[in-house]
Amino acid sequence: MKEITARLWENKLYGTTYGKGQYRKAIYNGTLELNDPYAKYLVDFEEIADWFHFTKAPLHHSIAKRLDSIPQNEAGIFMTWLYRYEQGIKTAIGGYGALDLNHNRILIQIDDQDLELSEHWELPVRSCIARIPGKPTPVLIATTLTELNSPQKPSTNGAFFGGNKQLLKELISRV
After folding, report:
1. Is the dihedral of CA 84, 90, 94, 98 positive or negative?
2. Pairwise CA distance, residues 106 & 143, whole Å
3. Hey, CA dihedral for 49, 22, 30, 55, is it positive or negative?
4. Of residues 27 and 172, which shows the higher confidence score?
5. Phi, psi (5° rounding) for residue 154?
6. Residue 155 gets which letter from DSSP?
7. Range of the structural domain that residue 102 is part of
8. Cα 50 from Cα 10, distance rounded (Å)
9. Overall domain count for the chain
């Protein structure tokens, strides 16, 4: 299984308009990143009915047409189509993402023919703590990387960088 990291942010523009009768429906925006080969995918998690009925890319429209029944909204479950992001260009690819907040998990299916990639992941989702004031921090994260698989302690990442290393040494010596 390839290493993947999913980072999700709350969409602060959710519900606002971007044109006459056009509303932003994504509740969470985010990225999926693969390491080998490196690839970055953009995701917009919407309610199931919006995901199904408002496809933007012809590829996604054809995939939605192949579904046997029309999916219905379920509380706490959101869906997304996938777009590969390279050099400022978004390209629709096969696959989808499903975010299940009832069970704190994310399911990802990537079918990227250009990269000869067809993979599936089911990962636990964890909430994130804003570690560095002013730096954008995702609300949710899911990854296959081993350092995030153990229970997380409150983080000091970034707080003891550079000149604050001495402060860290003092704190450790007091323990």
Report:
1. positive
2. 10
3. positive
4. 27
5. -55, 135
6. P
7. 4-174
8. 17
9. 1
- What does the alpha-carbon distance between residue 3 and residue 38 come to, in Å, rounded to a whole number? 10
**Tens-digit pLDDT profile for residues 110-137:** 999 999 999 999 999 998 877 777 777 8
Tokens of residue 132, six digits? 């560095």
Residue 2 DSSP code: -
Q: How far apart are CA 136 and CA 142, in angstroms?
A: 17
Cα–Cα distance between 109 and 90 in angstroms, integer?
18
Of the CA atoms within 13 Å of residue 157, those in its CB half-sphere come to 10
Longest Cα–Cα distance of the chain, Å, equals 64
Question: CA-CA distance, 10 to 24, in Å (whole number)?
Answer: 12
Judge residue 121's burial from the number of C-beta atoms within 10 Å of its C-beta, 0-12 exposed, 13-18 middle, 19 or more buried: buried
Instruction: Calculate the average pLDDT of the chain.
Output: 80
Q: Which residues contact 126 (CB under 8 A, 6 or more apart)?
A: 104, 140, 141, 142, 148, 152
- Structure tokens belonging to residue 175: 């323990």
Contacts of 119 (CB under 8 A, 6+ apart): 1, 2, 4, 108, 109, 110
Q: Which two tokens stand for residue 23?
A: 């509303």
For the chain, helix (H) and strand (E) counts, in that order, are 3, 11
CB 54 within 8 A of CB 23: no
